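Title: Prediction job returns without error message
Component: structure pipeline
Severity: low
Priority: P3
Assignee: unassigned

Description:
Job completed but the reporter wants confirmation the result is attached to the right record. Sequence as submitted:
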Amino acid sequence: MNFELNLNGWRDKSDPQAPQYQTLLSQAPPFTDPALRAFPFAPFNARAADWTPTEIARQNAAWTPATRPHANNRLLQSALRTNWEVADNITVTAITSYVDYKPNQGFETDGTTLFADDFIVDRGFIKSFNQELRVSNGGDAQFRWVLGGNYEKSHVYEYQLQTFSQISTAAIFGYTGAYVYTDQHMRNYAFFANGEYDLGDKITLKAGARYTNARRTAATCTGDPGDGSFGGVFDSLANAIQLGFFPVAGFTPTGVPVPPIGAGCAPLDNTTLDGTPATYLPGEFRDTLAEHNVSWRAGVDYKAAPGVLLYANIAKGYKAGSFPIASAATFEQFLPVVQESLLSYEAGFKLSSSDRRFNASGAAFYYDYRNKQLRGKIVDPIFGVLDALDNIPKSRMLGLELDTTYSPANGLTLGLSGSYLNSKITSFIGRDTAGGVKDYAGSVIPYTPKYQMRLSADYKWKIGNAEPFVGIVYSVRSKALANIGGDLGLVVTPDFRSSVPVSKTYTIDGYGLFDVRAGASFNDGQWSVMLFGKNVFDKYYVTNVFTDYDTIARFAGQPATYGVTVSFKMR
């Protein structure tokens, strides 16, 4: 029997990245704040950013402690692995782990110095316990198998304090900010089995299955931050609905005035989670998401010749559903997304020359998704058109990938890898940027560039007990989209300005980056030092684009960056 204990942790006090203001897309054009209408767009410079200064925040909102992007996050983790050989070639493995994570941060989301949207507080915790137990036989057997199960129990809490007094809808309703929290408990257990059987010297058959049972409960609330403005909006809205002044389809007014909300939970219950008619009364959203699935895989490996492996696999996998956290006026936006499923087909090869100087691997694949979780739109009666997680009924992706290395001389290694992706949403009707209904069939899946390629060259040699090395990497990728329907156009409002063409609002342009490194290792790798440069030609590029109330902002990629790393191995 042997044990392996791992204890680790970290604390991160680096500033969260601030986005760059790119586009004005007002929710309520007649009420756009003049300061936002005139605010300059960010230049195409990775080091340019705007955020609301702390001193301005304190002058405008007494309850605002800080708004400059800041963080003081920490994580503690422990894992114990126990291996026990209970019989010849039979090993029982137990893995016990616990994670304790606490975020404490604030970040900018609108990319301006205004109160268009600032998360001045984002705190909470994740406490997660996981236990796995499995039994397996030796790796040299003709039939290799693994049986096991695992159990997970997690508690996740997040609290956000948000200020948005200068968004256009605030001018209509008069609110200045809100708090939102979500308190979630997750319980998952699973059983799994996997086996591989050598059918002679050339063919190996593979199969495995896993049953997962997941249960998640959520309590979510949006409320007044302390100045009474947010709760007052919902007092008026709830009473207007209850008294029949604000018509709602399928709802019969009771005529009973709603008690003052105050600092309590403000969103209105417009759902029928328990089978009864929607009450449109304010309160805390509570719901349970119970899911189970059977994932599986099957495949065959064929050793066509020494150093040549051909394979084919088919697999069914799942991604768990979840509840969002967001400022919202109704329960509708708190509803969960259900689990997504993926049926994948893959065939490929692995090749190695007899002298090991040339290695290559490649594959072709087809992914068939059901209920893929992507960022879509929802129409909120108070905040307007908001981003929200959505289930896409059907989508697919097909692609090719290749990875090669070649050593033409001792110490010199050349690398070439790349991929091709063709993605498409085949069935989805959702909301557009103006809140209208739109058919997105045929749209590209976000964040799927059609082409990616990486070229590298590394050279190392020996000088005494030192082994110097140098290396270069050039990586390139084609454009991608950051939003569903980004390739189908944008619905603009009268208050629309942008620093990019309308057709490129949600486009992440393709880019190429050049990295270098040089250093040396000593005493057979016991310690080493390396100087590195990333994006040495200081290429400006974008990694994401997103909508936030009246603004659309982008995240810039890392500019030219240089540094040094030192590593040491204890023996």
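Comment from assignee: result matches the submitted record. The chain has a mean pLDDT of 91.
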